[in-house]
Amino acid sequence: MRSLVPILCGVLLALPSTALGQKDSGAEAAIHRGAAAWAAGWNSGDAGAVAALYAEDAVLMAPGMEPAQGRAAIMQALGGALKAAGGSQMKITPVEIMQGDGMAVEVGTFVDTAADGSHRDHGRYIAVWKNVGGTWMLYRDIWNSSMP
Amino acid sequence: MRSLVPILCGVLLALPSTALGQKDSGAEAAIHRGAAAWAAGWNSGDAGAVAALYAEDAVLMAPGMEPAQGRAAIMQALGGALKAAGGSQMKITPVEIMQGDGMAVEVGTFVDTAADGSHRDHGRYIAVWKNVGGTWMLYRDIWNSSMP
Lengths: 148, 148
What we know:
By secondary structure, chain A is an alpha+beta fold. Chain A has helices spanning 4-14, 27-43, 47-51, 71-85, and strands spanning 54-61, 68-69, 89-99, 103-113, 119-132, 135-145. Chain A binds chain B through residues 1, 4-5, 8-9, 12-13, 20, 22-23, 59, 61-67, 98-101, 103, 105, 107, 123-126, 128, 140, 142-148, and chain B through 1, 4-5, 8-9, 12-13, 20, 22-23, 59, 61-67, 98-101, 103, 105, 107, 123-126, 128, 140, 142-148.
């Protein structure tokens, strides 16, 4: 039995990742949906819808302000940003997704177009997602502008 | 035996992470050393020393410029930033490190003090590290300023 156990465990370890909680084949799709939902929430001016994508203990690290810690603070920060944006339309493009154990890292780009159609901003972000009871939620989120 | 195997596998899965190749107990120490080396390189104006911490295929996403892709471009970007910084001194503090399979995510803060001792900037960063042949190297790196 001693000799069999490592083999059986080896087989177990080689199983598709969901079985071990190491990788979640649904994570990538969930994160793509999340990125689309982020943009949709922003584009309709709905800070609550965007904030709902963040875990309760998430931290939003937006440029030009101290970090917003927790979903309530994040919603407030997003509300202020939306007001300043004046109906801008955000396009978010996930470029790569790396998975860990119950976490995933998304690197992507954004383009923000003002309500009058002019180019408002563009840049990159890194978002760390974590699996909270089966739902992938934003946990750490940072971006910056590529514009001089 | 059928009933024992899951238990034994459960024990195996609960072993320190290095045994499973999922986490590297040396990663956290390596990343702390890396963060210190980043600051030391910056503070001595040595773009090459800082660039050497990045993987060959790393991407540096610094505010106000398009991403620098690859170590050579990163060194050039850092050289420009160092010139603009005029001998500033950077303090970098890793706040949390999350590990995946051959990758790790570091979230931290920085404070940048001008050569004349005045406060130049402070903010947050997310750095994705990857294990390249046993060495933890910066793979994706983004930061922004908390200052208005």
